Amino acid sequence: MVQTPPPPSISPRQMNLLRIVTAMAWADGGLAETEANLMLDRFSRIFAQNADQQQHLRQELQDYMMQNIPLSELVPQLQSTKEKELVLRLGYEVICSSSRVPSEDRINTEEAAALYQLVMLLDLPSSTVERIEAEAAAALSTDKGNLVDSLTNQLQNFMR
Q1: Exposed e or buried b for every residue in 98-134, given b needs 16+ CB within 10 A?
Q2: Which fold has domain 12-159?
Q3: pLDDT band at residue 130 using 50, 70 and 90 as cut-offs
């Protein structure tokens, strides 16, 4: 019998945001171990105050990141338009950053389907969707950092 891990020591709202971003990373059927580890390190630093808390939270989040929860269960838990917009931007960035070889399309078929599903579930105006995707694409093309840095910065700013 598979045992469900205890709830993490972050708020349900924060956990839901992280789960949606993780679900988008799973869209192509896998979550790269190196990227998962980097995301765990960064996210634990955002939500925990000291090294002991960060290590404990990192382990908690790891248990949850390995669960591929459907977007249809996660998106309805979003509480505001601001959260929906953040999730769309983060989801778009995750999807666009996952090409594995230079000749591969930036967004493959599975990822395109996941992004479409996310957009439908978020039910944002098309002008908002277009604006957020354009902003995210511009940030990805000009950002000298990596995806995890971008995710970390946006989550930190959102949680303030």
Answers
A1: beeeeeeeebbeebeebbebbbebbebeeeebeebbe
A2: TerB-like (1.10.3680)
A3: very high
